[in-house]
Give the backbone structure.
Amino acid sequence: MRFLKLGLLLVMALVISACSQPKYYNYRGPEVTQVVVNKSERRMYLLHNEDVLKSYDIGLGFAPQGHKQVEGDGKTPEGVYYIDRRNPNSSFHLSIGISYPNNQDRAIASSMGKSPGGDIFIHGQGNGYRKGAPKDWTAGCIAVTDKQIRDVYSMVRDGTPIVINP
């Protein structure tokens, strides 16, 4: 009887662990050497040198045209930045940070007497996203699906350059 209970507990533990899917995985493929975002195409590319490893449809800030200049403008930055942090506990499933603002961004905002903002990420949708929401819905971030951000989070390392084109 004791062995039966122990066996059932073991089986239940295995079933529970098999059902829980990790938020991200260990990527073992070619290194992502650059991320390229083409805002006008609403596409993001993960590159290894010149080869496209993955590409994704993306959502942008709620006012996507033009370069982000000040906090709250709803624009997604344009230019060359770096992946500089990651958040496995993001409200948007997973997220990786973009090094906005740089010194030039700060100077532009300062000349207008405003803050450049910050906390620009590539992230998933999370629980707050509702189906049928507009394609460009973030406050300036780059959004993909939760499944896609698992790939991006796993593949892209801190320090990777990201080029965000108009």
About this structure: The first helix runs from residue 2 to 19. The mean pLDDT is 88.
